[in-house]
Specification:
There is one protein chain. The chain is 40% helix and 23% strand. The chain has 272 residues and is an alpha/beta fold. It has one domain: Nucleoside phosphorylase domain (Rossmann fold). It has a five-stranded mixed beta barrel with strand order 5-9-8-6-10. The longest helix is centred in the last third of the chain and has 21 residues. The model has no long low-confidence stretch (mean pLDDT 87). Pfam families: PNP_UDP_1. InterPro entries: MTAN, Nucleoside_phosphorylase_d, Nucleoside_phosphorylase_sf. It comes from Cannabis sativa.
């Protein structure tokens, strides 16, 4: 008779295998800003949930609906209750991702949004990237092992089929809570070998990793960080147009067709 521990391990492996081979049913799309979220909401004719599963009093917003056989959920952190601006940044992103995973039990998370890009790494305005890796650039803890925890490097879910068919760019994503870039952040971003930078991705990845939910990161470039224009000015100037490019990449019927009836194992292999 096998030891109890062996049975438990075998049961766990069987559960993981079943999850990988089961069709994707529920998708969670985490988006930081209302401007970024609404084109996706309108494309799939999603409706706002009036009876949210989130705790009472939080500003988080969920839109949901069904496309083919997929349950699509778009969640954004809502407006700051005091100032009325979008609740951007890592804290809001991690909280809303945690609550959404607990309430909705998604098979796959998509973190979609805008990002700054580095011209020196081949990024241009309007380019759409699939992130291969995500890490923080503003959590500097110069103590052995804690330094690695601060960077928090995590790999995104590998989707070679998606990448090949859509011909998107690939780059490493670096996350921090500031729109601009101080010298310390620049050094960390360089160490992360990042092509794009945002304010949410690594926080979403941290929560997704805890619950072992596969996650992909789709980021459209609004501003060139190492360019000549001020970041804030260029971001606001290009936000609407680049959000349209983002919406097209996220909502293309071909992508949704792939997800429909596709298992996670099939999604992460080249051919299926």
């Amino acid at each position: 008779m096998a030891p109890h521990g062996d049975k438990s391990h075998a049961a766990e492996e069987a559960a993981v295998s079943q999850a990988e081979n089961s069709p994707i049913s529920t998708i969670l799309i985490v988006i930081a800003m209302q401007t970024e979220a609404l084109p996706v909401v309108n494309k799939f004719q999603l409706t706002e949930d009036p009876h949210s599963a989130f705790p009472s009093g939080v500003p988080w917003v969920r839109y949901h609906g069904i496309y083919k056989d997929l349950h699509i959920n778009v969640v954004w952190p809502g407006k700051d209750l005091s100032l009325g601006v979008d609740s951007v940044g890592t804290i809001s992103a991690s909280l809303v991702t945690y609550a959404s995973v607990q309430a909705l039990k998604p098979d796959l998370i998509i973190n979609a949004g805008t990002a700054g890009g580095f011209k020196a790494k081949g990024a241009g305005i309007g380019d759409v990237f699939l992130a291969s890796d995500v890490a923080f650039h503003d959590r500097r803890i110069p103590i052995p092992v804690f330094d690695l925890y601060g960077v928090g490097l995590r790999q995104a879910c590998s989707t070679p089929k998606l990448l090949k068919e859509l011909n998107l760019k690939v780059g490493k994503l670096s996350t921090g809570d500031s729109l601009d870039m101080c010298p310390h952040d620049e050094a960390s971003i360089t160490a992360n070998d990042a092509t794009i930078k945002d304010m949410e991705g690594a926080a979403v990845a941290y929560v997704a990793d805890i619950f072992k939910v596969p996650t992909i990161f789709v980021k459209a470039v609004t501003d060139i960080v190492d360019g000549e224009k001020p970041t804030a000015e260029e971001f606001l100037q290009n936000l609407a147009a680049v959000t349209a490019a983002l919406e097209q990449s996220v909502t293309q019927a071909k992508i949704i067709t792939w997800f429909s009836g596709t298992s996670l194992k099939q999604l992460t292999t080249m051919w299926f």
